[in-house]
Amino acid sequence: MKDEVTDNLEDHSENEDIEVRILLEAIYLKYGYDFRNYSKASLKRRIAQRMTLSSLDNVSDMIHKILYDRAFFDMFLNELSIKVTEMFRDPLFFLAMRKQVIPLLRPLPFIKVWIAGCSTGEEVYSLAILLTEEKLYEKTRIYATDFSEAALNQARDGIYKTNDMKKYTSNYQQAGGVESFVDYFLARYDSAIMDQSLRKNITFSRHNLVTDGVFGEMNLIVCRNVLIYFNRDLQDSVFGLFVDSLCEGGFLALGSKETIRLSRHASNFEDVSKEEKIYCKHSMPIPDVQSGKPAEGLPEGVFNRSTALISETMKRLDELQGLLRSVTRT
After folding, report:
1. Residue 290 DSSP label
2. Is residue 118 within 8 Å of residue 204, measured between CB atoms?
3. pTM exceeding 0.90
4. Running along the chain, 330 residues long, what does each successive block of 10 average in pLDDT?
5. For 247, phi and psi rounded to 5 degrees?
6. In the chain, what are the domain boundaries?
7. Using an 8 Å Cβ cutoff, are 88 and 175 in contact?
8. Is 190 in contact with 163 (CB distance < 8 Å)?
9. Assigned CATH class of 91-281
10. Cα–Cα distance between 170 and 176 in angstroms, integer?
């Protein structure tokens, strides 16, 4: 009898796995969204939650709703995009950005940032505040992307709950904030509206990490707490996308539970902060060569290669200027 119960449970689990695979295939064929290589455990939790909320008895019923009810699919799609997020989440990460990455971005004439999987925008505005305080925002363009239009609309609005602002203020202070956090939003009733000055250099747009292509020549890519929902093969594919989207010396920032070290693309990157999962693609853009030492926390090997590259470039510029002077004299 016990063996029979065990067999029935195993059959049910196997059938459920098959139904989930069919559901994901149906979404891909009908709408073009590819979740087939997402973490199955995470997907099953989201599916079970939606089935409970919609009073659906089984996954087969949900497949029918997905195929024939666009509003239902849009609702489920939005639920898949929602991740746990808050402003200045993991304050030590933003502190590391301020101390170890900002000094290397500062000399650039223009800074391009891609926040991939931006969800409802809390991380986007956090970075905008950091760049503002470091006097870099005026020469920065932030591209914030997500596959969910509903999440993007909320991010564009930049309206959050005032109840969350106490927690966000604490995060901001721990992240090295140098101003008063309340100056960055307008409190109105139970809503906090982010200041318009923070939105002016942000472009929100739809982009699917699974199916869409390269996203420009970026100096910084931030993709935190997104890849944990992908299986290893899909993570590897996305890392390849990031390699192709980063300029030489660009930075990649991941979540605390994510790493590029297990990827076949790991050799393209060096550690900037092992603790905060910040990496750079080979050499840095422009280190502070005048001081003769790396910025705080910057790997010395990366600094040495960067300064050597700059020294060689300056030498060639001197040679070119000498050649131009000789041509002018003749």
Report:
1. T
2. yes
3. no
4. 52 79 92 83 90 93 94 88 84 98 96 96 98 98 94 95 96 97 95 96 94 90 92 92 96 95 93 96 55 51 51 59 59
5. -75, 165
6. 1-80, 91-281
7. yes
8. yes
9. alpha beta
10. 10
